[in-house]
Amino acid sequence: QVQFAESGGGWVQPGGSTNLACEASGISQIWIMGWHRQAPGKQRELVAEISSAGRTTYAEFAKGRFTITRDNVNKENEVHLQMYNLQEDDTAVYYCKAVRSGHPDYWGRGTQVTVSS
Fold it and tell me: What residues in the chain have per-residue pLDDT under 70?
């Protein structure tokens, strides 16, 4: 059974930063790990993802503010998302995702990030 341990997030002041961490267990040969988010009343959207080869993809709003990392040598099942200069529009539930070729996407339960003064 695939399980996710998501951590980080919480309440952040505008302009602040936080780091999200996600570790997937019960799964191997993960091709892509990433983060998506869903704000109230909006659809879930991509934030950033990183492949086993280290290739990254960022949403436009994340470029220059968010950094996704993954240790593909020692901890290939773990991904981090460092977020800087957070704004109220970044308030959302952030979901970790793991993709394995030939399998449906696996999702974590999500962690809340609230940006507010």
Answer: none
CB 49 within 8 A of CB 69: no
- Please, what is the Cα angle at 44 between 9 and 17, to 5 degrees? 25
List Cβ neighbours of 40 (8 Å cut-off, separation of 6 or more): none
Counting every residue written for the chain, the total comes to 117
pLDDT tens-digit series, residues 20-40: 999 999 988 889 999 999 999
pLDDT of residue 71: 86
Handedness of CA 63, 22, 88, 93 (dihedral sign): positive
User: Closest Cα partner for 20 from 108, 87, 106, 104?
Assistant: 108
The structure tokens listed for 7 are 């951590």
